[in-house]
Amino acid sequence: MKKIAVVGCGAYMDSGYGCPGEWRCLKAAAMGDGKIDEPSTVTAFVKCECPGRAVVPTIGMSMKMAEIKPDVIHLSSCMVGAKPGCPYASAEEMAQIIEEKTGIKVIMGTHDYH
Ligand code: SF4
User: Fold this and answer.
1) Distance from the alpha carbon of residue 91 to the mean position of ligand 1, in angstroms
2) How many domains does the chain have?
């Protein structure tokens, strides 16, 4: 089964309502819905923390601790579609940095649920 890591916006997660990691990303992974193109195992769920500088090392640590390298990394839909957006980096910039540093393809978004 395809292995994916999900990166969510910690500032949004901490706001509670409709939090990433509550069920949407996980259901999309289980069902192969939205931007997750086939049923997939979530091998890491990484919480970005402002100002976002630790996200790459945290992804690296998650892979090291799990001893699993995901096939792709998804930025969560709430991170990609955030309004107002992240004040530190656009989702595109974040994706580019993660891709360059990890060598793993980054996909913009996870689910289409509301
Ligand atoms: S740096 Fe941006 S994406 Fe990361 S937690 Fe803060 S607001 Fe969210």
Assistant:
1) 9
2) 1
Give the whole-angstrom CA distance, residue 26 versus residue 113: 11
The answer to whether residue 19 sits within a structural domain is: yes
Q: Which residues line ligand 1 (CB under 6 A)?
A: 9-11, 48-52, 79, 86, 88
Q: 20 falls in which pLDDT band (50, 70, 90)?
A: low
The single-letter code of the amino acid at 89 is A
Is residue 82 assigned to a domain?
A: no
Its domain, for residue 19, covers 1-34+55-74+90-114
Q: Give the sign of the dihedral formed by CA 65, CA 71, CA 73, CA 74.
A: negative
pLDDT tens-digit map of 35-64: 999 999 999 999 999 999 999 999 999 999
Fill in the amino acid letter for 6.
V
CA of 57 to the centre of ligand 1 (A): 15
Q: Which two tokens stand for residue 45?
A: 């769920």
Task: List CB contacts of 98: < 8 A, sequence separation 6 or more.
Answer: 7, 55, 56, 59, 73, 75, 104, 106
Q: Is 81 part of any domain?
A: no
